[in-house]
């Protein structure tokens, strides 16, 4: 049996309106993350600070590339971590050992990205 959402998507076909809605949902997702997650707000402050510092110190093109890569990795991992938390909480609201492991591993992804971002920041801004 075909999944209901999959069937509905095929029935609708392509539309510019639907594509624009996808962007809107993605933007809502970003806002939800910033409003709900303390870590995302810390990432926002760090991102704005690094961008300001980069402009003030006049980073070279290749240094900006590393900075953008680091910033993107942190936001992507935080978004996936947050999405996993929502799905896990919806599917298993009670305490569960596997949910704990899944959330810990997802948080580890953010930690790895944040460590990489810190190394990039030290490399490009160290006098
Ligand atoms: N349903 C659950 N069952 C067991 N342990 C859980 C459960 N939910 C959360 N935990 C534990 O609490 C930790 C924090 O989970 P929570 O959902 O509160 O995320 P958070 O506070 O937003 O953390 P993060 O900083 O990773 O975003 C998890 O990494 C996990 O160890």
Automatic annotation (TrEMBL):
Mn(2+), Zn(2+), Cd(2+) and Co(2+) support activity to lesser extents. CDD domains: UDPK_IM_like. The active site is at 78 (proton acceptor). InterPro entries: DAGK, DAGK_sf, UDPK. The keyword Ligase does not apply. A divalent metal cation binds at residue 85. Its main location: membrane. ATP binds at residues 9, 25, 85, 103-104. Substrate binds at residues 9, 78. It is a multi-pass membrane protein. Belongs to the bacterial diacylglycerol kinase family. This is Undecaprenol kinase. The gene is dgkA_1.
């Amino acid at each position: 049996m075909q999944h209901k959402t999959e069937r509905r998507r095929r029935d609708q076909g392509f539309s510019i309106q639907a594509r624009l809605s996808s962007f809107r949902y993605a933007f809502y997702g970003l806002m939800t993350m910033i409003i709900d997650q303390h870590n995302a707000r810390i990432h926002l402050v760090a991102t704005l600070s690094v961008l300001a510092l980069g402009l003030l110190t006049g980073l070279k093109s290749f240094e900006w590339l590393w900075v953008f890569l680091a910033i993107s990795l942190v936001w992507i991992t935080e978004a996936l971590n947050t999405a996993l938390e929502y799905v896990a909480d919806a599917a298993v609201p009670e305490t569960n050992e596997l949910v704990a492991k899944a959330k810990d591993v997802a948080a580890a992804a953010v930690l790895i990205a944040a460590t990489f971002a810190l190394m990039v920041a030290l490399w490009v801004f160290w006098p």
